[in-house]
Amino acid sequence: MPESSLNRYPFYCPRFWHGMRPSAWWRLLRGGGFAISPSRLPLAVSVSIATPFNTLLMGLQNVLYRRRIREAELHGPPVFIIGHWRSGTTLLHELMVRDERFSSPSTFQCFAPSHFLLTEWFFRRFAKWLLPGKRPMDNMDTGWDRPQEDEFALVNLGLPSPYRRIAFPRGGPVDMEYLDFEGVDKPAREHWIATMQAFLHRVSASTTRPLVIKSPTHTGRIGHLAAAFPQARFIHITRDPRAVFPSTCRLWRSLDEVQGLQAPKSDTSDDGIEEYVLDCFERMYQAFHQQRKQIDQHHLIDIRYEDLIADPVGTLQKIYDSLRLADFETVREDIQTWTETEHQSYQTNAHQLSSSQEQRLRERWGDYFERYGY
H or E segment at 110? Predict the structure, then answer.
């Protein structure tokens, strides 16, 4: 990971483990064999100090907001943005929530899922300085109020997730079955879904608008999510695998460096990231292609990152019309303004792919290349 990327994530910035309660934190440490690197001990100590306060604040929130939490419900069917990491899900998420008729789990809500109803106002007003201006992996803007992946909230709430690997990157993949729920027994799956629903209800109680939810990890769970949210809409975004693969490898190495409790291997050729990316892709897309058959054709749309970049306004209109979300004309001008200002100045990271890597991709991800025309 380039030093310039690390410099954009200062040492005082909170990591997403800081939102855990003691029981979830203990399970994470135990799952990693307590193999904390000496250089990461200050991070481990700060999280250990924070976790009891999360429990205390949650208890206070439950008392003060008891009725609001009890009566919380979704304000309309949720819209899920799915697709592999680095396929443009974040960009699409940012665009969708420019429509003020929608909302999304915010960065603070995902980093403090146990007590955000009580504390979010304070961090939004007085603690903006705790976050860097840009995400180190892709130059996207950050902020407590920016839309965020709900998977981070689910990890903080103690649910199994492949993201737990980030804490102890040398230990290899964990919770891979939670990419598609294959092999997860019914009680565990129902508990996972119920915890997610409860979190989204609290978010909805805060925003009082329909939610746009984005997590690449949901791609292989689409059938289960459709069953849990019967009227949900799904936007599936694809991108050229020759760009997705190196960008995703960079993503994981960035997160391992910034968020890890264990220093990652210095030799990237031996860190297992490339094989991990290949395996995750295969597993989630095998499940996605099987489960998408269960989805009403009017509730799911496929779009391409390349089309989104070339024509944001036209692509968003296609999404709105196909999924029957709302009147697109209401938000057209705002999207057009964004396209002519921020979009023009946004620069993606450059990635290189060797001929041997491309051959490997075509062998392992050949179905994706063919199915989506890459």
Answer: helix 107-111
Task: Sort strands 300-304 and 233-238 into parallel, antiparallel or unpaired.
Answer: parallel
pLDDT digits (tens, 9 = 90+) for 216-250: 999 999 999 999 999 999 999 999 999 999 999 99
Per-residue pLDDT tens over the stretch 1-18? 333 343 344 444 568 899
User: Hey, which CATH number is domain 3-371, 3.30.70.20, 3.40.50.300, 3.50.50.60, 3.40.50.150?
Assistant: 3.40.50.300
| Domain ranges for the chain | 3-371
In the numeric block, which tokens belong to residue 215? 């997590």
- SS3 sequence of 288-341: HHHHHHHCCHHHEEEEEHHHHHHCHHHHHHHHHHHHCCCCCHHHHHHHHHHHHC
134: which strand partners? 141
